[in-house]
């Protein structure tokens, strides 16, 4: 998956915004104001940070050399994924998992707003 495919996949999800809150090269995707994915556009090879269930995060790191503890993130809840080292299908699955985790933690009010979009 390249950066354009990654961006298009993330931004197509319901309630998602993109921004550069940290600097001009760190692209952040949020659902209803909560971060679920980010990417340093200046990193080669391209890598993204995604939220992950802690148990699944460990399994993924053991199974895939291209998935490591979240770089500059909570090592328990975030993974760094090198996009050139895993399949496009797995990348999409991990983006979906991150998005779903964040949505599951939203308040009832915010979830209702999201459903109304």
Automatic annotation (TrEMBL):
<protein>
    <submittedName>
        <fullName>Predicted DNA-binding protein, MmcQ/YjbR family</fullName>
    </submittedName>
</protein>
<keyword id="KW-0238">DNA-binding</keyword>
<dbReference type="InterPro" id="IPR038056">
    <property type="entry name" value="YjbR-like_sf"/>
</dbReference>
<dbReference type="Pfam" id="PF04237">
    <property type="entry name" value="YjbR"/>
</dbReference>
<dbReference type="InterPro" id="IPR058532">
    <property type="entry name" value="YjbR/MT2646/Rv2570-like"/>
</dbReference>
<dbReference type="InterPro" id="IPR007351">
    <property type="entry name" value="YjbR"/>
</dbReference>
<dbReference type="GO" id="GO:0003677">
    <property type="term" value="F:DNA binding"/>
</dbReference>
């Amino acid at each position: 998956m390249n950066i354009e495919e990654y961006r298009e996949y993330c931004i197509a999800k319901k309630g998602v915004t993109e921004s550069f809150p940290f600097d001009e090269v760190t692209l952040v995707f949020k659902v209803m104001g909560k971060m679920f994915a980010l990417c340093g556009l200046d990193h080669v090879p391209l890598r993204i940070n995604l939220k992950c269930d802690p148990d699944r995060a460990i399994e993924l790191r053991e199974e895939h050399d291209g998935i490591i503890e979240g770089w500059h993130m909570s090592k328990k809840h975030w993974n760094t994924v090198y996009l050139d080292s895993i399949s496009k299908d797995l990348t999409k699955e991990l983006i979906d998992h991150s998005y779903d985790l964040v949505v599951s933690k939203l308040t009832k009010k915010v979830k209702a707003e999201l459903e109304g979009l």
